[in-house]
Protein 1
Amino acid sequence: MGSRFFQAIGVWPLLAALAILFFLPAAVIIANSVTEPPGAGLSNFRRVLADPTFFRFAMNTVKIAIIVSIFTGVIGYFYAYAMYRAGPALRAFLLTCALLPLWTSLLVRSFAWSVILRDTGIVNWLLISAGVVDHPIGMMRTLFAVTIGMIQILLPFTILPAYTSMRRFDSNLIAAARSLGASPRRAFWQVFFPSTQVGLAAGLVLVFVLSLGYYITPVLLGGPSDQPVAVLITAQITSQLDWGAAGAMSAIVTAAVLLMLAVGWNALKKIFLV
Amino acid sequence: MIPIVVLLLAPSLVILPLSVSQRQVLAWPPRGFTLDWYFSLFASGRWWDSAIHSVEVAAASTVIAVLLGVPAGVTLGLRSFRFKDVVLAIAVVPLVIPTVVLAIGMYKVYVWLGLYDLLGLAAAHAMIGVPLVVVTTMSAARQLDPVLILASRSLGAGPIRTFFLVILPGVRSGVISGAFFAFASSWDEVIIANFLSSPTYRTIPVQMWAQINQHVDPTVAALASVLFILSMAMMAGLAMASRRAR
């Protein structure tokens, strides 16, 4: 008994700290959904779920998460495949390009996108100089601005897991498939892709889950009709002081995040935790 | 491939030329050359104060994250015990819980515990940084040769001596990466910092967020460039440190 307790003693300080400093705050805010105002019961959930504003913000969140996941998934897998096929020098360059955004501040990158996409930004300057358009196209404060910013910010999260799974792939299998008469395309889709799709899946789960909580990028780049639930939750606290509604919305978003994680746990574990 | 590389690098590359442009507004193309925006940035006491706050918070939270995360990562990497998967899930979940949810919860609980400004931010950011330390330490510990630990124990070293003399040097590269990641994640964090800091204890991201939402001038581009160069330095620092640790 005693030795079994000490077997895992290294994790106890961490668990104790997380319990007080992480789980308690998360639990208190979620508990607020049924305790604020006193005796609220499920009324906050009924109120929030019937609220067209919440519905609109929730739809924005899901729409953005889906668009961003699709683009980062396709582009990230393709990029990882190019890294996998490249020579050492090009591979090192591509890896650096993928890691650099990860290190650059999210706030700095979102701000930079606002500078790139504004009417007097480089994109409109290029389009006007090339004679494609006469007047600047309004790209700021649109869904396009939010999604392109988030795609760039989250792209490393699909590139790196996909690349990890490709590096573990036994390239002899492709040679075997080819020698048995499979075309390069068939060898890719029937041998390479099935063995590396776990990396793609891990990246997609991660991107989807992270985009559900995005706040900074949509506020800086999106218009009033592109804002996600995270913005609505903050507004409940800072302008409405409605802890009950904030708690109910937090509970819904957190449940969605945990559900996605449970679905993707095996893929995430295979890629990140081995 | 080239469009994707452009997409990845665009934000970093566009901001630098604009930070030395003589224009009063952030408009492309840049015109002339001036370092005035940098001078006005570095002459501002407000930015220096927030830089000091950011360094304090990031350093303190990294120390806490390492102290908590390394023993946990080593244990998860080397031992097997009941509920290990559950412990692992608990240890990494702070990375994915929406920051806004966490921020308002911490706002309520931390203030009640008397944790705000430096203490509060260090504790909060340690919770975000610790999963990174756990994961990197754990994967380094998995690669340790278990024979080394057995040898140390059979030669008479106790578990504590073995930890400090055999295991810790063996997982050093993982600890270093984790510490860099934890530092960078605190350095960049806005949302929690916004809720837990008083107006006199703003970190750089909080100050920058306030500035962007009030009035954007090229000084912000100069700051963004400085932050970009610092993050490149951090990335290069990690590459060098982990090469030396190997």
Note: DSSP finds twelve helices and no strands in chain B.
Protein 2
Amino acid sequence: MSLSIAGMGWITPLGRGVDQVWDRLIRGDEAIPQTVAGGEGAKTYHSFLVPNDALQNLPPHPRLRRVSAISRFAVAAGLDAIAQAKSESFKVDTEKLALVFAVSNGGVVYTKRFYHNIVEAGAQSASPLLFPETVFNAPASHLAAILGVNGATYTVVGDGAVGILGIQMAAELLETGAARHCLVVGAEEADWVLCDAYHKWRLTRSSPPIEPFSDSARGTILSEGAGAVLLGADGRVKIDRVNSGGNFSHQRDATKVVQRILHDLRDPNACIVASANGTFIDDAEREAIQNEASECIVYSPKAALGEGVGASALWQIIVAARALERKHLPPMLHAGNNSLLRFPADGDKLGPTAIVLSCGMNQQATGLRLLA
Amino acid sequence: MGSFNALNKTSPPTRVAVVAAGIVSPLGFGLRETLQSLQKATDCVTPVSRFDVSNCRCKTAAQIPDDRLFGKRQKNRKTARLHRASHMMIAAMAELTERDPKFVPDITIIGTTSGGMSFGENYYRAVYQHENLRRAPEWLANYPPQKPVLDAQHEFGISAPCFVIANACASGTNAIGRAFEGIRSGKYERVLTGGYDALSELVFVGFDSLQAATPEKCRPFDRDRTGMVLGEGAAVLALENFESARKRGAEILGEVMGYGISTDNHHLTQPDPSGSGPRRAMEQALESGGCSPDQVDYINAHGTATAFNDAAEGKAISEVFGSVPVSSTKSMIGHSLGAAGAIEAVICLLALQSQFLPPNINFRQPDSGLALNIVANESREAKIDVALSNSFGFGGTNASVLISKLAA
């Protein structure tokens, strides 16, 4: 069976809609950082947030009344992917539609608010309305209810690599006949507590830019949003290989895992949409690419979109699919001059394949290959 | 690494053997202790000791004692940093690898709901109360749900790609179901699967705030049931292509025959009262296993003892299966959320191997609205060839897995 992308949807700090965000990436736009403040006296951070107007036109469904941003992002991207597929005359039967939701940090805004009440005022003040929204699969449940999916719905959690694990799971659902189409959605929401946590984890920097593949890993900037791809037998771009990757116990071991993935996926005519985000990931990917695919053009969208963690791999897949359709990549922003990698340049013509590498910040790495 | 389109379609479907298992739960450490506690109908629910519950309605849970869980491991500097969920996974994996040291999975699929949640709580309390954040990096690095799985893999030299399913309380059964499907389709030869969850304050208070947790005894399917108690634990199962397992002489504990999944869009936290979601999952598991309802000898129910769950599940069970023996072992060990499906699958295996029905304790009065054959209060001997295990969760996720004894 062939696995193809029948529809795509994304909601990012650069806006919503495949054409709109793609055009901005091509223009070299990058998201505008916004200050994310904690409590009084707490350190402030910068994050790339989804603009308010990007969430207009969501359906007036009762499930969306009290949900947190992550659920709205997931619903917006998921519905857009299905709408795009339908606009291109793909018939999507919800009776035979499965849903895979990929996430890393989850509904952190409501989780923080729920636990804050407990810490501040005791268990008796805990909100029964907030608690269900803290569960990892709440966004998938809302999206399933809105779409009317009553078959297989899975939520997979992991680090930034989780989106491709979601694609792998979808591929298996389709291959075994459990569904005719599978909607894979990756989403994340940003919050001060996440910015603080990743900062204390020494993975973020205080303010932009993100400098992928620069000489020293100065850290990344968290962002939020969602990406969605509708997978089925037919579509304009095919996913012809998925590598579920592997795990690394120490950051220094990431290179070996990424290189193994790239070795499996390599194609001298492919471009690579990497996950480099200004952290240790950049070194791992650079070394792997130099060893396995030094001739390939390399692009990372993270300088423009930020590190969307659970959403990131889906964003990369959409970038890669769009690049294959349009035959060019957006300009690489803030990249190191000495990285010895081949970045997109005017006049480059892309071949028919693209590799998406996804190395997460907590021990997981995956990849896949797209074919136009 | 094979690609998805390299699936080896086989006909008839590949049989899926369980070649090893490991379990840590309030019933005990390992299959032997678990079996003994089940047969003795042990009530493992005790007052919560890990955090303050003075402002909660419910003040009890089924907990794994720290001294047994950590043992000597806590003295090791590296393992001392790990979350207790990692220790649970490592303990369960130790039993599995001891039982089948040659089992090397192609892939790992584990269910959980809350990962290392208590480390997230430590971090947030420290931030909010301006306390020392020296341990923050270690809390944060060990908080993500995949970490206990990767820790357990690392401990035993396993490097398989790792999928973590978080389908709320159905996670463990969904993980086993995906593992089963992966082997049955010919995609994988061996899959490590299971589930884990450790008790945490946030989740405990959450269920308490919903008034889903009871201040009394947990009485699944009883007329006077008042809600659930929480539990914790980890269970892992080694699934393998049946022929491959037989060729290498692996001990076969049982067979996973079928799996069903459905989504109930009625409400985020409440099942459709018609029981249609559970019913679809159970019927699909039967269909997938090529099994008729009258071939099922025992059902390990989701049975949380909440009014809504037990009513919907009980209705679905009686409509599909009639008077098959049913018990909810959550009455003994509480609801261990993402671990529940895996622990209960292991309990089914033990029931099949030792030919007994695990009990539904604290049962006093049948619910006149439910026509169920409850295995009340004591375990009893029975001839069991096929068992069904149910798990249902927030978000309307329903999953059932069908397990059989190896035919003589």
Note: DSSP finds 14 helices and 16 strands in chain B.
